[in-house]
């Protein structure tokens, strides 16, 4: 998401002291990197503002932080589960969506024992089960799945737009929003601070000198899809010492035919793909079986992948951007991290960690 920076003017000769905000005014609790939510306080009260694609001009919800710690939490995306678990919320997580796709062992045990209810039937909210579950806090998708389901007046519904964050640390910082809503703000702040420090340490290891040119995307039905130049993945690649093949102002989701992809791919050093399969991907898998693509050194010799069926690329990885960065740094500049063992992104010839 591209955000143009306005030109700032400094006005001199101000003779009056700045005014003190009234006690009735809501005050921001500043974020480090996240731009799609804002926590605010007014005395002992606290609230969250949730923003859509247009940022602060697109407020989706204003949600009061519960005065009492929630005891029954539901989540309506698999990406929400790691945030709740990271804050010690396993025992109060009572409902989830697409539970069979969550790879966490703690969650799976509770789900198998019936302690967590599946809330999706087909692709829709199971309204009857949701009402019977009676959660007091719901982390919802956007648009909201719970909009058609009445619930007790005390339920707090929080739309989650972490997927709109263009910076990896911005996505991780959503743990602060989860922490505020769950009554675990100090734990969340500490957790995020550790993530940010580790990320910056990894970024500082990028060696001076040439930055390899990188393509990243997926392939489906003979069409190649690339991550936008202003995306989360493009930022990770740049922070890991790569040069993304698109400029950081490029939005949208570029699609390429095989012929146009070959033109692009012939100018890069590394080709990365995200896919989902039960077996360890090979170079042929990344090439979608096409011998012309397979012949590219950027894929055959220097290709890399993220496999969502073997590592939680779309879930736990959101809270571990420092490890994502270390994985990519190891791929682009292996001499800088010789002892690193990849967790989420792997060189095409390297098996995942067990």
Give a quick account of the main beta sheet: strands, pairing sense, barrel closure.
Answer: 7 strands, mixed
Q: So, CATH architecture of the largest domain?
A: 3-Layer(aba) Sandwich
The level-1 CATH class of the largest domain: Alpha Beta
- How confident overall, as mean pLDDT? 88
Percentage of β-strand residues: 15-25%
From N to C, what is the helix and strand string? Answer: EEEEEHEHEEEHEEHHHEEHEEHEHHHEHE
Q: Using only CA atoms, what is the Rg? A: 22 Å
CATH fold type of the largest domain: Rossmann fold
Number of helices: 12
Q: Rough shape?
A: globular
What is the helix fraction of residues, given as a range? 25-40%
DSSP summary, beta strand count: 18
Uncertain runs with pLDDT below 50, 5 residues or more? Answer: 1-23
Give the domain tally: 2
**CATH 4th-level superfamily of the largest domain:** Nitrogenase molybdenum iron protein domain
The N- and C-terminal alpha carbons lie at a distance of 35 Å
């Amino acid at each position: 998401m591209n955000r143009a920076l306005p030109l700032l003017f400094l006005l001199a000769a101000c003779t009056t002291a700045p005014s003190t905000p009234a006690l009735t005014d809501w005050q921001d609790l500043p974020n480090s990197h996240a731009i799609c939510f804002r926590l605010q306080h007014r005395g002992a009260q606290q609230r969250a503002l949730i923003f859509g694609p247009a940022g602060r001009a697109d407020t989706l919800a204003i949600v009061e932080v519960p005065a009492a710690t929630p005891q029954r939490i539901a989540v309506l995306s698999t990406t929400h589960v790691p945030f709740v678990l990271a804050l010690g919320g396993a025992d109060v997580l009572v409902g989830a969506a697409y539970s069979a796709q969550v790879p966490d062992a703690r969650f799976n045990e509770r789900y198998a024992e019936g302690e967590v209810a599946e809330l999706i039937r087909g692709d829709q909210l199971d309204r009857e089960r949701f009402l019977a579950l009676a959660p007091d806090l719901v982390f919802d998708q956007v648009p909201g799945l719970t909009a058609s389901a009445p619930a007790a007046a005390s339920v707090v519904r929080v739309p989650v737009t972490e997927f709109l964050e263009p910076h990896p640390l911005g996505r991780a910082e959503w743990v602060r929003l989860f922490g505020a809503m769950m009554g675990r703000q100090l734990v969340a702040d500490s957790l995020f601070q550790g993530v940010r420090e580790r990320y910056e340490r990894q970024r500082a290891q990028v060696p001076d000198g040439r930055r390899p040119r990188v393509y990243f995307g997926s392939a489906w039905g003979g069409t190649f899809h690339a991550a936008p130049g202003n995306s989360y993945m493009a930022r990770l690649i740049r922070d890991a010492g790569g040069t993304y093949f698109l400029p950081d102002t490029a939005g949208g989701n570029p699609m390429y035919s095989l012929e146009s992809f070959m033109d692009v791919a012939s100018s890069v050093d590394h080709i990365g793909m995200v896919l989902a399969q039960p077996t360890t991907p090979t170079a042929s898998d990344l090439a979608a079986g096409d011998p012309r693509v397979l012949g590219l050194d950027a894929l055959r010799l220097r290709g890399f992948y993220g496999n969502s069926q073997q590592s939680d690329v779309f879930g736990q990885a959101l809270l571990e951007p420092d490890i994502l960065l270390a994985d990519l740094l190891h791929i682009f500049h292996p001499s800088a991290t010789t002892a690193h063992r990849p967790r989420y992104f792997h060189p095409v010839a390297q098996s995942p960690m067990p």
